[in-house]
């Protein structure tokens, strides 16, 4: 059987130096960082992609190990495997750089928790990171990369220095990229439970899988929290190994976040132009593109986010997505989770509590809005 590298797991990253961040950036020195990653796709071998994309100084990896996760910060010790880089167990990644580990013979099934342990011996400066992954990282002093557990470790709700795991999968394995905002990254879902909308969608699939490139607060048109969608499309979609499809959900932050600074929301014309450009670039690359309608956020508790002007634009853009957009298919997130008595608001049983994000049940409803025949992985 012919095999090829395909993305089994992805994590979109932001700069710790951005003006607006939803979690506090940090660095490390003489510490081990252990992070649990759950690939949506499996294979006989794997490689890990590390990043210093937004670092301002070289990043030294003193040791890197991968193992099957047991629970929390614990690993299954007999699976513990050293990662090497061009044959070496230590490597320095230059500022702005990224690299893949050498392949390792560790077979992984879809949905298996893997624990990545990085020993960072020197002062790192602020870390390139994923700021709202809904997974806990464990930080302990010293080189404990191969330790079975990290009792007393500091718990941090973020993910650092890793953007993906590739797996050696059968030729033809289809990979969809969930490219969007917090409604993909998972804000509002249960911490460490893998109940994001993307996880629920993967549970519905009997072939192929979806990797998550959501960034909470990300916008279609403007850099603010992470590079905007049009700017990061090449890196976070086109460069994903094995990508065949892309699902997009953007717009809430283009409409809501400007109001926090007293600015007007994006116009319908601007959003339509942006979505049209995403579709053009996806089709040019041979990808199938599915677009989600913009979810309701009328009950957002954040000052300035929910405005009559922004909500009116949402309704207009959603009608365009449903009836005239240049997409291969549409998944109607808004209809799936809206309050039927007030469609600008999330249905109460799907609301995480802030009027802007979905809880576990809402995330599942979002996943169920995707027609698997249209996705056709």
Automatic annotation (TrEMBL):
Gene3D superfamilies, per database record: SGNH hydrolase
Signal peptide extent: none
Keywords: Hydrolase
InterPro entries named among the record's database cross-references: GDSL_Rv0518-like, SGNH_hydro, SGNH_hydro_sf
This protein's record includes keyword Mitochondrion: no
The keyword Metal-binding is assigned to this record: no
MF (Gene Ontology): hydrolase activity
SGNH hydrolase-type esterase domain location: 178-365
Entry-linked Pfam families: Lipase_GDSL_2
Alphabetized PANTHER family for the sequence: GDSL-LIKE LIPASE/ACYLHYDROLASE, PUTATIVE (AFU_ORTHOLOGUE AFUA_2G00820)-RELATED, GDSL-LIKE LIPASE_ACYLHYDROLASE, PUTATIVE (AFU_ORTHOLOGUE AFUA_2G00820)-RELATED
Protein name: SGNH/GDSL hydrolase family protein
Gene source species: Actinomadura rugatobispora
């Amino acid at each position: 059987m012919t095999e090829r590298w395909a993305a089994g797991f992805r994590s979109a990253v932001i700069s710790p130096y951005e003006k607006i961040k939803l979690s506090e950036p940090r660095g490390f020195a003489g510490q081990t960082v252990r992070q649990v990653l759950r690939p949506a796709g499996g294979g006989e071998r794997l490689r890990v992609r590390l990043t210093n994309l937004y670092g301002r100084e070289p990043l030294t990896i003193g040791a890197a190990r991968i193992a099957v996760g047991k629970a929390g910060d614990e690993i299954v010790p007999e699976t513990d495997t050293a990662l090497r880089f061009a044959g070496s167990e230590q490597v320095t990644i230059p500022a702005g750089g990224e690299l893949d580990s050498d392949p390792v013979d560790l077979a992984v099934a879809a949905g298996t928790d893997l624990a990545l342990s990085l020993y960072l011996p020197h002062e790192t400066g602020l870390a390139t990171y994923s700021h709202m992954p809904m997974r806990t990282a464990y930080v302990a002093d010293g080189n404990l990369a191969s330790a079975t557990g990290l009792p007393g470790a500091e718990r941090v709700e973020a993910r650092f220095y890793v953007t993906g795991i590739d797996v050696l999968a059968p030729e033809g394995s289809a990979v969809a990229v969930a490219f969007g905002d917090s409604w993909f990254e998972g804000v509002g879902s249960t911490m460490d439970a893998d109940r994001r909308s993307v996880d629920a969608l993967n549970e519905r699939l009997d072939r192929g899988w979806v990797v998550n490139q959501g960034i909470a607060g990300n916008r279609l048109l403007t850099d603010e929290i992470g590079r905007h969608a049009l700017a990061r499309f090449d890196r976070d979609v086109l460069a994903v190994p094995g990508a065949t499809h892309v699902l997009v959900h953007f717009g809430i932050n283009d409409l809501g976040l400007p109001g926090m600074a007293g600015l007007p929301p994006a116009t319908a014309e601007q959003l339509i132009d942006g979505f049209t450009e995403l579709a053009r670039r996806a089709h040019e690359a041979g990808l199938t593109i599915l677009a989600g309608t913009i979810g309701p956020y009328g009950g957002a508790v954040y000052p300035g986010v929910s405005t009559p002007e922004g909500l009116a634009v949402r309704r207009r853009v959603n009608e365009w997505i449903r009836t005239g957009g240049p997409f291969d298919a549409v998944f109607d997130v808004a209809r799936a989770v809206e309050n039927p008595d007030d469609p600008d608001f999330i249905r109460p049983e799907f609301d995480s509590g802030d009027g802007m994000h979905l809880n576990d049940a809402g995330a599942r409803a979002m996943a169920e809005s995707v027609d698997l025949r249209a996705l056709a992985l």
